[in-house]
Amino acid sequence: MGELLVKALTINGKTNPLGTDGAAPRFGWKLESERRGTMQTAYRIQVAGADGDFGKPVWDSGRVESDRSIEAAYRGPKPASRTRYHCRVKVWDNFGRESDWSETAWWETALLSADEWKAKWITPDPAGIDPLAEPAFLLRKSFELRGKVRSARIYATGLGVYDLYVNGDKVGDDLLAPGWTSYRKRLQFQTYDVTGKLRSGPNGIGIMLANGWYKGELTWLNKKELYGNRRAALVQLHVSYSDGTEEVVATDPTWTATTGPILYSEIYHGETYDARLELPGWSKGNYDASDWKPVVPVDLPLSVLVPQENWPTRVTETIRPAAFIRTPSGDAVLDMGQNMVGRIRLTVEAPAGTRIRLQHAEVLDKDGHFYTGNLRSAKQTVEYIAKGEGTESYAPYFTFQGFRYVKVEGYPGDGAELPLDRFVGEVIHSDMPRTGEFECSHELVNRLQRNIVWGQRGNFLDVPTDCPQRDERLGWTGDAQVFVWTAAFNYNVGPFFRKWLRDLAADQKPDGGVPFVIPDVLDGDHSSAAWGDAAVIVPWAMYRIYGDKELLAEQFDSMKAWIDYIRAQGENEFLWNTGFHFGDWLGLDAKENSYVGATPRDLIATAFFAYSARLVRDAAVELGRAEDVRTYGELHQRVVAAFRDEFVTPSGRLAAPTQTAHVLALMFDLVEGKVRERVARDLNRLIADNDYHLTTGFVGTPYLCHVLSDNGYHDTALKLLLQESYPSWLYSVLQGATTIWEHWDGIKPDGSFWSDDMNSFNHYAYGAIGDWLYRVVAGLDSDPREPAYKRSRIRPRFGGERLTSARARFDSPYGRIEASWRAEGGARVVEAVVPPNTTAEVLLRDATLDKLRESGRAAADADGVLTAADTAEGALLTVGSGSYRFEYPLA
Ligand code: RAM
C-alpha cells in the first residue's frame, strides 16, 4: 500500500537556518504518500545537540497523538547561544503506517545575549579620515591562528551597509547587509560560516562600509543621516580549533581603516568606483596596512541587535540585454527587455582612467529618447573608472537601480554598437522561495501575471517598497496591505513580513497611530485609513496563510492599539470622519489635479475601521482572549451600524455613487440582504455604464473583481480583467509594460506620460488583482476557518469563450496544492492536487453528481472522496489528499 514519507523539515519556516534567535523554534514538515486521503495521526520529534547524536537527544517529544505538522513547538531546554541543534521527525497516519525518520535537519543559534559581544563598535578615527567623507570605508585586521580550525563563525553588522571579507574573499552571498530596519530600535546582525576560509598561520578579515539607508539620502526631501552620521562596524569571529579550544577576533581599536575604490555610493543615486584605487589583498593576512589610519571605538547600544529575520538579499537571476538602441539624440542605450531591479555588471578592457558611465531609466519617451524625468532627484548613475589591466569586471556594491534601459557613455568604441555580451543585468531582491504559479489560456493575462511577479521582485528588497527607482523606495503601509495576499501566493513572504511587522510595531506611535511608511523615515504624526490598517491586515494574513500564531500573538497589542487609536479620533467613536487620509489614492474619479479619488474619505475610513475591528475580534478568537473577543466584536457591530446610518439611505442605496464605495461595502460585509443585492447591482451598473471600465484607485482596485465574482457578477469581473482599452490592467500590458504601473495611465494612449512628479512604472499596488486570479479564476483558495490551507477550497470558475482554461499551483505549508480547469471535447475537466494531512472542499459548478466522473468512475464513490452532495451551485465534494481528475458534461 505504498510508503509514508516525511520530508522538508523546516525550522521557523526555513531550511537549516544559521543564526536564529533564542526563542523555542517551530517545526514544520511535509508528508508524502501515494495513497489518497492520507492524514497524520501522530508525530515524534527528536532534537540532538551539537554532536548530532540522537541516542542522547536534547529533547524527544515522544509520540504525540496529533495531526499537527506545521508550527509544532519545541519544548526542550532553552536553546543555548552559538549552538547547532539537529532534528528529525517521524509520523504515523490514518492507515496505520509509520514513516522512517526524516532526513536530519538543523538550526544554529546566533549570539543570544548582548553581553556575549566582545566586539566594540568601531569607526575610523576622525583625525585620520573625515567621518562624513563620501567614500566607503575599509576596516581590517590581520591575526594569527595557531592550529587546525574545526569550525568558525562570524557575527557581524554595521551602521550603513556592509560587505565582509576574509582572506581575500567575500563572505556570504548576501547584499546590502544588515538590511533595513527601524535602526534605533532594531538592528539585524548576520551569522556566517567561515570554516573553509581560515587556515593555520596568518589570516585577514575586513569589512567595507557605505552609507546605505542608515546615513544616506532618503525620501523626496533628500534627508540625510536620518539615523546617524557615523558609519560603524561590529564584527566578532569565533574560531574553534580541532583541539577543542576557542579564539575570538573582534572589532576593537587594533583594527585600521582607509578608503578605497568606492568613491561614492548611495541607494538612490548610484555608485562611483575608481578601480585604480583598489587595494589588492587588503583582507588577506599578509597585507601591509602600515599606511592605514587608526579607528576609534564608538559607544553604541548592543541591546537593539537581533539576529537576521528576513530572507537575505541576493542576486537571484541574471539577464542579458535584449537589444542595443541608438536613440534619436544619439545616445547609446541597452534595452534589458524587462523593467528590473538590481545592477549591471560590466566587463571591459580599457586604458587606465577610462570613465564609463551608466545611467538607468525605466522607459523611453514617445520619441524614443532616454527618459529620467520620473526618477525625480534619484540619479541612478554608476561610474566606473578603469584601471587598465586586462579584462576588468565590475558591478556596484551598495546601491540598486530600477530600470529597463541603460544609457552607456565612455565605453570603448561606443560610437558603434555596444557589445551586448559585456553587460549583464543582476536581479536583486529578498531571496524568498517561489511558492506559486498562475497560468491561463489568455496570453495577455499571463503577461500581466508575470508583470505582477516582476513588480514583487523589484519591490521586495528587504522592505515592501512602493517603488524601486525614484527618490522614494519606502515601506508604504497601504501598498503592502493591498498586495500582501498576492505576494504570498507568488513567494514565501513569511520571514519577510515577520521582520517588517516587528518594525511596524516598533515605530507605532504611543497613541497607536501607524506611520505612513515603515521603517518610519517621514516622521509625521498623521495616520491614514487603509494605510495604518496594515497593522491589522498583514499579521492576520500571515496567520491565515502560514498559520503563524506566534506572530499573531506578538502583534496583537499593535493590532489593538491601531483600533483603539481610530476609536479615539473625533467626536463619534464609531465613525472615523476626522483627520488626514489618502482616500482612494489615484482613483480615476478624482477631481482635476487631485490624487484622491471621489469616494468620501470618511466612508473609506469607517469601512476599514469596521473591517479591522472584525479582524482583531477574529484574532482574539484564535488567541483565546475572551474579553477582547467581546470588546472588538461589539465595537465591530457598532461601527457597522454607524456606517449604515451614515452612508446607506433609508431605501437601501449607497449614498456615495462611486465604484470604490460599493466595493468596500460589499467586501467588508457592511451591507446585507436586500441592501447587499442592491449595492452589488448598482456596482455592476456603474461599471456597465462606464463601458466596462474601472475608476478605482489603491483602495477599491484590489477587491473590485472579488466582490463582483462573489455577488453574482463574475462575468463583469472577467470583462474588467480582459478589458484592453484604458483604463484596465491589460492596457498597460498592450503598451508594452513588463511591470505594474503606479497610474492606470502612466503612459497615455498618445504615448505621452502622466506628469513627471509621480509616475512609477514599477508599483505593485494594482498587481493585487493577482490574488483574485489565483483564488477565483483558477479557484485555488482556502477555508477561512482553517489557517495555512489545512482545508483548501478548489472552486474553479469557467471563463466562457475568452478564457478557456486556467491553472494554479501553490506550495502551502502542508505541501503543493494544484487547481486547474479546461474544456475538453464536450466536457469540463477539473484537476486538483491536495497535499497529505489536509482536505479540500471541491465545488464543481453546474455539475450534478449523477454526471460527475472522477478518473473514469462515479465521483461520489471515488477513493478519497469523503462527502458528496448536489447543491444549487453544483456538485460539492470533500476530498482527502491525492490527485483528482473530475469530468462532467458542458452545461
Ligand atoms: C506615494 C507612494 C505610495 C502611496 C503614497 C500615498 O508617494 O508611492 O504608493 O502609498 O504616495
Question: Top keywords for this entry?
Answer:
7-stranded antiparallel sheet, Jelly Rolls, about 30% strand, 10-stranded mixed sheet, 5 domains, binds alpha-L-rhamnopyranose, Immunoglobulin-like, 14 helices, alpha+beta, about 900 residues, 47 strands
What does this structure look like?
The protein is an alpha+beta fold and 891 residues long. The chain has 5 domains: 4-109, Sandwich (Immunoglobulin-like); 114-260 and 282-303, Galactose-binding domain-like (Jelly Rolls); 313-430, Galactose-binding domain-like (Jelly Rolls, Sandwich); 436-775, Alpha/alpha barrel (Glycosyltransferase); 782-889, Maltose phosphorylase, domain 3 (Sandwich), CATH 2.60.420.10. It contains 14 helices and 47 strands. A hairpin with a 3-residue loop joins strand 20 and strand 21. The two termini are 38 Å apart. Alpha-L-rhamnopyranose binds at residues 466-467, 472, 476, 478-479, 582, 585, 763. Alpha-L-rhamnopyranose binds next to helix 3.
Secondary structure topology:
Blueprint: E1 4-11, E2 18-20, E3 26-33, E4 40-48, E5 59-60, E6 64-65, E7 72-73, E8 84-93, E9 105-109, E10 122-124, E11 137-145, E12 149-159, E13 161-166, E14 169-170, E15 187-193, E16 201-210, H1 212-215, E17 232-241, E18 246-250, E19 256-259, E20 262-266, E21 270-274, E22 293-297, E23 305-307, E24 313-319, E25 323-326, E26 332-348, E27 355-361, E28 363-364, E29 370-371, E30 381-385, E31 392-394, E32 401-409, E33 423-430, E34 436-440, H2 443-459, E35 460-461, E36 463-464, H3 477-490, H4 494-507, H5 534-546, H6 549-567, H7 601-623, H8 626-647, H9 659-667, H10 673-689, H11 701-710, H12 714-722, H13 729-734, H14 769-778, E37 780-782, E38 791-794, E39 805-812, E40 815-824, E41 827-834, E42 839-845, E43 853-854, E44 857-858, E45 865-870, E46 874-879, E47 882-889
Helix pairs in contact: 3-5, 3-14, 4-5, 5-6, 6-7, 7-8, 9-10, 9-11, 11-12, 11-14
